[in-house]
């Protein structure tokens, strides 16, 4: 942590609170020369901003001349965490003296103590050209998706997950979570279906077809308790409109829904609570089906 960088960050004028927060977090991790390399996932946890908001803030800070970003790579050529140089009030600039980065991430000495303002001799070596190859940015796994599910989904995609693609997919998953679905269940369906992208309506149509197919296989005995639970979750996303329709269609579910916590409560449960409610519902619905037989 550099007190100097934090002081400069507090004095800097930013266009939005998100830019200010990202700048302060970078300063909190920076050396006195303005160098730091926190991951975007680390900044997401500490700033409570979304990854897309952090990337947007970084781009604007770069445009404002307060930040410079350099990609880093391991021996195998895989990209690691970006290296950031804060350039507030001349910090981290090439003409400042002391340490400054060259293209490609190398660090060299351009002057500073012990040189007595002696003019630099012109170099006979050819100038180093910046690396113009496209750098593939990495999308970090959100905390609300299990590691194995995330890994399997990336393999199923058979294409790199770019920030642009993730900025389209993530809002659809978040909408699904707000509707009462599990992020892991949604991605598990995406894996099974072989989807490279994801949309909430794809998922809802898929589970609806699965429920209808299960109902057809069951014949007169009706759909399975698991399929009925999917109907309950779908209806809980719009309780005012869907509750009466569900009760007209499945009046026998009233006791099982009440035993699982109640219709309105099911719609407000988090992922882990819904898992417990699902188990209770399936148990009650199975017992109820057995009594009727």
The average pLDDT score comes to: 77
The strands making up the biggest β-sheet line up spatially as 1-3-2
| Biggest sheet layout | 3 strands, antiparallel
Helices and strands, in order, run as: HHEHHEEEEHHHHHHHHH
- For the record, give the distance between the C-alpha atoms at the N and C termini, rounded to a whole number: 70 Å
Rg from C-alpha positions? 27 Å
- The total count of helices amounts to 13
Query: What are the segments in which pLDDT stays under 50 over at least 5 consecutive residues?
Result: 91-123
From the helix content, strand content and strand pairing, which structural class follows?
Answer: mainly alpha
**What sort of overall outline do the alpha carbons produce when their principal axes are compared?**
elongated
Level of helix content? 40-55%
- List how many beta strands DSSP finds: 5
Taken together, the total number of domains comes to 2
Strand content: 5-15%
What does this structure look like?
The chain has 293 residues and is mainly alpha-helical. It folds into two domains: 3-108, Winged helix-like DNA-binding domain superfamily/Winged helix DNA-binding domain (Arc Repressor Mutant, subunit A); 147-292, no CATH class. The protein has helices spanning 3-11, 17-29, 40-47, 51-63, 147-157, 163-178, 183-193, 200-218, 225-236, 239-249, 254-259, 263-268, 271-292, and strands at residues 35-36, 67-70, 83-86, 99-101, 107-109. The strands form two sheets. Strands 1-3-2 form a three-stranded antiparallel sheet. Strands 4-5 form a two-stranded antiparallel sheet. β4 and β5 form a beta hairpin. α1 runs antiparallel to α2 and α5 (147-157) runs parallel beside α7 (183-193). The chain is elongated, with a radius of gyration of 27 Å. Mean pLDDT is 77; it is low at 91-123.
């Amino acid at each position: 942590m550099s007190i100097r960088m934090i002081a400069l960050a507090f004095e800097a004028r930013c266009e939005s609170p998100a830019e200010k927060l990202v700048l302060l977090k970078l300063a909190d991790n920076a050396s006195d020369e303005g160098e730091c390399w926190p991951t975007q996932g680390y900044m997401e946890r500490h700033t409570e901003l979304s990854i897309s908001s952090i990337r947007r803030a970084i781009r604007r800070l770069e445009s404002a001349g307060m930040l410079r970003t350099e990609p880093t790579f391991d021996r195998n050529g895989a990209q690691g965490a970006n290296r950031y140089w804060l350039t507030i009030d001349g910090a981290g600039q090439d003409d400042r003296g002391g340490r400054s980065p060259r293209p490609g991430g190398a660090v060299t000495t351009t002057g500073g103590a012990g040189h007595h303002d002696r003019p630099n001799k012109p170099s006979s070596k050819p100038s180093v050209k910046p690396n113009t190859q496209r750098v593939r940015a990495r999308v970090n796994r959100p905390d609300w998706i299990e590691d194995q599910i995330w890994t399997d989904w990336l393999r199923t995609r058979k294409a790199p997950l770019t920030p642009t693609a993730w900025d389209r997919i993530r809002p659809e998953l978040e909408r699904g979570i707000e509707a009462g679905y599990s992020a892991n269940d949604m991605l598990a369906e995406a894996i099974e279906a072989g989807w490279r992208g994801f949309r909430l309506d794809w998922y809802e149509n898929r589970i609806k077809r699965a429920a209808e197919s299960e109902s057809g296989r069951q014949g007169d005995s009706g759909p399975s308790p698991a399929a009925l639970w999917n109907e309950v979750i779908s209806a809980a996303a719009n309780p005012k409109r869907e509750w009466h329709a569900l009760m007209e269609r499945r009046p026998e579910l009233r006791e099982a829904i009440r035993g699982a916590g109640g219709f309105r409560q099911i719609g407000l449960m988090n992922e882990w609570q819904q898992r417990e409610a699902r188990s209770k519902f399936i148990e009650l619905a199975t017992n109820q089906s057995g009594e009727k037989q």
